Amino acid sequence: MRNLVLLGGGYGNMRVLLRLLPNNLPEDVRITLVDRTPYHSLKTEFYALAAGTSSDHEIRVAFPESDRLKIVYGEITEIDVENKNVLLIDGQAIAYDDLVIGLGCEDKYHGVPGAAEFTYSIQTIGRSRETYSKIGGLSAGSIVGIVGAGLSGIELASELRESRPDLRIKLFDRSPRVLRDFPERLSKYVQKWFDSNNVDVVSNSNITKVEPNKLYNHEEVIPVDVVVWTAGIQPAAPVRALPGEKDNSGRVILTQYHDIPGYENVFVVGDSASLPLAPSAQLAEEQAEQIVKVLQARWDNVSLPEKMPEIKLKGFMGSLGKKQGFAYLADISVTGRIARLMKSGLLWMYKRHNG
């Protein structure tokens, strides 16, 4: 019996499961899924959990049930690609024939002193719970600093404004404007929302140190009651320890078939994969679609195409609280209530098809 092992139950490996189960898996192949939690967490919604506007139950769905699927719960400590084993913190060793690594990412602190020790995170569901607990316990008038004005930082700041109008929120952005890499119209819309809702966007910032209740922006010392870090990601530690070449962000450089050069049975999907597009749930799912086709071709001894199709994304959506949002789809910018409804509808459809 051939064992396909999936590490991590994120968006990429959920798509692998959706495409292979129940009827597209060869009779001689079984699947083992390894994850820390007994459910698939909707990472794109962790900001809402941290802000207190969505419950834990709302941002997760169950893994599929199948007699062809075995689920192992545990923390992965090492991926031994030479001996085809995955080692868990409890001492278990899981052998694989094919491996899809979808372990996601963790915060990257860029060497900023105190950032790892004195900031909160929304990278995992567990850490998002801790962030919610901390912010929820703040008294009125407390200052929340959010470092990083990418999509996660923007959504957290706006959702937190709706959840806790009594708090002072400072969003630190290294760029001269939010959403710098997207049309100026979107940037101006988001900035106007922040101005209207008393979210202080600190542009051209450079956080040089974090201390308890203090942020250092350039040479300025800014008092804060809690800091949430959304200013960069890196692959999980077991992925960073893999052999082979990495890009400047530590992501694994792959062949066009999404496997590690020299290890054609080891695939990397999602945030840990070096791809020409920015990491996202949508990208992980599109990559997973191709990985499934490669797996099926190899299982059936069918030749792979000389060139894999280019992955094309539909765009992105972001929320500004529960009533407003923004989107960039097919080179068209959409803002306001319609964009928010689009994102809510997409989330509903995802949960319906995967839950």
Summary, kept brief:
With 355 residues, this protein is of the alpha/beta class. It contains 9 helices and 23 strands.
Tell me the CATH superfamily of the largest domain: FAD/NAD(P)-binding domain
Structural class: alpha/beta
**What gap, in angstroms, lies between the N and C termini?**
28 Å
CATH top-level class of the largest domain: Alpha Beta
General shape = globular
Uncertain segments: none
Family: Belongs to the NADH dehydrogenase family.
GO molecular function: NAD(P)H dehydrogenase (quinone) activity
Keywords: FAD, Flavoprotein, Oxidoreductase
Pfam family, one: Pyr_redox_2
Question: What does the model show?
Answer:
The protein has 355 residues and is of the alpha/beta class. It folds into 2 domains: 2-36 and 74-105 and 233-299, 3-Layer(bba) Sandwich (FAD/NAD(P)-binding domain), CATH 3.50.50.60; 109-231, FAD/NAD(P)-binding domain. It is built from 9 helices and 23 strands. The chain has helices at 11-20, 46-51, 115-118, 125-136, 151-163, 184-196, 237-240, 281-299, 337-354, and strands at residues 2-7, 29-35, 40-41, 60-61, 69-73, 76-80, 85-88, 93-95, 98-101, 105-107, 143-147, 168-172, 199-202, 207-211, 214-217, 220-223, 226-229, 233-235, 259-260, 263-268, 315-320, 324-329, 332-336. A 6-stranded mixed β-sheet has the order 5-2-1-9-20-19, with no helix packed on it. A 4-stranded parallel β-sheet has the order 13-12-11-17. Helix 1 (11-20) packs across helix 8 (281-299).
